[in-house]
Amino acid sequence: LSDEIEEVMISVRTGRVATAWRGRSYPTLKGLGSYITDLLQRLKFLQGWYDNGQPRVFWISGFFFTQSFLTAVLQNHARKHVIAIDMLAFNFVMVEVSEDSPQPEMGSYIRGLFLEGACWDKENKRLDEAKPRRLHENMPEIWLHPMELKDIPNSRSYLCPCYKTAERRGTLMTTGHCTNFIFNVNIPTHLKEDHWILRGVALICALTD
Question: Where is each Dynein heavy chain C-terminal domain found (predicted)?
Answer without folding.
Answer: 2-205
